Amino acid sequence: MSNLTPTHDRPGLHVSKPSPSTPATATAVCHCGESATATGDAQVKTLVDGYTANHGPAHNKR
Q1: How far apart are CA 41 and CA 56, in angstroms?
Q2: How do beta strands 35-39 and 12-16 pair?
Q3: Closest among 39, 7, 46 to 23, alpha carbons compared
Q4: Using an 8 Å Cβ cutoff, are 11 and 29 in contact?
Q5: pTM, 2 dp
Q6: Cα end-to-end span (Å), the chain
Q7: Are 14 and 6 in contact (CB under 8 A)?
Q8: In Å, how far are 17, 24, 49 from 13, measured between CA atoms?
Q9: Which of 30-47 are b and which e, b meaning 16 or more Cβ less than 10 Å from the residue's Cβ?
Q10: What digits encode the pLDDT tens for the residues 2-32?
Q11: 43 vs 3, 20, 37, 49, CA distance in Å?
Q12: Best exposed site among 13, 29, 38, 54 by fewest CB in 10 Å?
């Protein structure tokens, strides 16, 4: 499988949780230049909610 981690050349959101007993991790990069990472289920949910509301697809609504 290819590397799914977003970069400034390939912006996006990537979430991983390999097993139920490991914490989730996430990486987000927006085409506006903002980027963020998170570890832990609650922090990843916060990152995903923020990215969805303020970056990525949200830029197309403005």
Answers
A1: 21
A2: unpaired
A3: 39
A4: yes
A5: 0.84
A6: 34
A7: yes
A8: 14, 13, 11
A9: beeeeebebeeeebbeeb
A10: 677 888 888 999 999 999 999 999 999 998 9
A11: 22, 16, 9, 10
A12: 54
Name all contacts of 14-23 with Cβ < 8 Å and 24+ positions apart. 15/44, 15/48, 17/41
Among all chains, which residue has been given the structure tokens 């963020």? 36
| Polymer length in residues for the chain | 62
Hey, what are 11's tokens? 């912006």
Task: Say how many C-beta atoms besides its own lie within 10 A of residue 16's C-beta.
Answer: 13
